[in-house]
């Protein structure tokens, strides 16, 4: 029996995406369902089952040897459970056991969504060839993951690289997570927009108050919009520099909606990094925009499953 | 020929210590010289040569198979060079090549001093049995190192775990390293003492204005002294929580002079951790005082040399 493919699941608060992926990271088949995020846990699992059902109807399914899952967090890879903030019906939900059962006992690898994005950028994107990298998603929230010593570093529970919830302002505003001055509390899209509005920025005739609208205003020279992105850039720089100082990364890759703002974000970010990344071993740290598109979560989940199945020490675990 | 021993060097701004260490971490012989820290580079190297000369006079020397060096940083393990802040004569100084030459070509492993302390605490101290740990020295400065996945994580240049110079207060006071609001700028002994004095604390008749004197005053109930330790504890908590959130450690070990302050530090530190370490996967994080004494640097340098020589993939590198 050929088992040269893996099934990948990308589970978020809006949609559940699935794909069959080969060892080159090509997506050969795919399925998707909306996430019934406000329903009970079994209903949410029903959507996962529907995606798996659609995939297993493919003639390629018999070549699938493992399943990789990238899920909104927190996850607990050691317990095989997930507790996505935006899916209240799933708390310590035994997703790994359910997916294993639904696939006839295939090995299942679970990682957080930030870790999955990182696996994808390291395999095929902006972190390719970098043995020590931080990859981030800056959008509604701020997530991330780490590559250390040439390998994905999910940590024991699959949540490592959670840069959105480290404090860079210990007396700062309280984040919904409970901590003060989190990177996310300063640098996420909604916080960029909120800060611009609080300081007097007003949207155009279309009423668009998104971070993308603030970015457009900043590009047009609006000083309040510029200042809000500069503040976000400083928080990101402090967090990236902290990560580099702690684990010696040489590149930080930034994706997500805010990451697409371009030089409005990256120019002040590079300036701020010279202030916060000062020790000799972090001064060469580079920042780069993400290269993977919306399939990053699927490709990364596939990468994690393939990496696990290729490591003889843990094969089949 | 037996090569069951390693030679260890602990190089700081005050002294250069050396030892012959067996595979159980026992120190069988030792030598020490003051560091001529303000002299030129070759004079400093002369002190290292003197320590190695004294060790090599031991009948045990013929059993030495490798040398481990823990040095004040920054170091560059990939280049084999050191640039200790307090030893200006050494800038990108080729210490590894010099020690290799002085020992007839023995393999030499170089790590930062914070990483060395970590290796020792993980081998024989408070981090023993923990696969993911941060070990810190809080004294004149704040240093540290990481154990990830059961192994020391020195990083490519040997400086990983440099928690003293991550920013937890992005608008804070500037640290001599250039960054604002570093953990060290808030939590080191001199900064604890400075803050207490700035806020009106006055020393006793002996005129002692050290952090140890502030700790004694805090134990006696002086509110300004208590507040200065609480502020240090908050900065340490924010830094430790950031580390746990980024790489999933389950214990933080704190040594050094400030670490010896006991509950004056640890009680507010544990309270502050409940504020800054809020995500599910970091909530069980423990803090503990260091267990290794003044030989930690030597034992850790020996551990690094032994670990390297036992890893067949990198033996002799």
From TrEMBL, chains A, B:
Keywords carried by this UniProt record: Transferase
Xref: Gene3D superfamilies: 3.30.420.40
MF (Gene Ontology): glucokinase activity
InterPro entries: ATPase_NBD, ROK, ROK_cs
EC id: 2.7.1.2
Enzyme class, broadest EC rank: transferase
Family per similarity comment: Belongs to the ROK (NagC/XylR) family.
Record-given protein name: Glucokinase
């Amino acid at each position: 029996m050929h088992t040269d493919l893996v099934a990948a699941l990308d589970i978020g608060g809006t949609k559940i995406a699935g794909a069959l992926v080969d060892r080159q990271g090509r997506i050969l088949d795919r399925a998707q369902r909306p996430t019934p995020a406000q329903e009970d846990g079994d209903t949410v699992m029903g959507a996962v089952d529907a995606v798996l059902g659609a995939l297993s109807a493919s003639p390629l399914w018999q070549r699938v040897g493992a399943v990789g899952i990238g899920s909104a967090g927190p996850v607990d890879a050691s317990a095989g459970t997930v507790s996505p903030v935006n899916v209240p019906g799933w708390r310590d939900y035994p997703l790994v056991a359910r997916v294993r059962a639904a696939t006839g006992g295939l090995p299942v690898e679970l990682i957080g969504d930030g870790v999955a994005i990182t696996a994808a950028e390291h395999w095929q994107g902006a972190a390719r060839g970098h043995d020590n990298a931080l990859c981030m998603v800056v959008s509604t929230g701020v997530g991330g993951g780490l590559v250390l010593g040439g390998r994905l570093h999910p940590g024991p529970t699959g949540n490592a690289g959670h840069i959105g919830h480290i404090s860079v302002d210990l007396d700062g505003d309280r984040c919904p997570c409970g901590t003060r001055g989190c990177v996310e509390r300063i640098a996420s899209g909604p916080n960029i927009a909120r800060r611009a509005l609080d300081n007097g920025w007003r949207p155009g005739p279309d009423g668009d108050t998104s971070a993308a609208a603030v970015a457009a205003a900043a590009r047009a020279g609006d000083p309040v919009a510029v200042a809000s992105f500069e503040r976000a850039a400083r928080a990101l720089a402090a967090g990236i520099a902290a990560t580099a100082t702690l684990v010696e990364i040489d590149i930080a890759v930034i994706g997500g909606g805010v990451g697409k703002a371009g030089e409005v974000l990256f120019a002040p970010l590079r300036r701020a990094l010279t202030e916060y990344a000062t020790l000799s071993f972090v001064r060469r740290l580079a920042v780069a925009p993400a290269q993977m598109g919306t399939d990053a979560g699927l490709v990364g989940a596939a990468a994690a499953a393939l990496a696990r199945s290729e490591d003889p020490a843990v094969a089949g675990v």
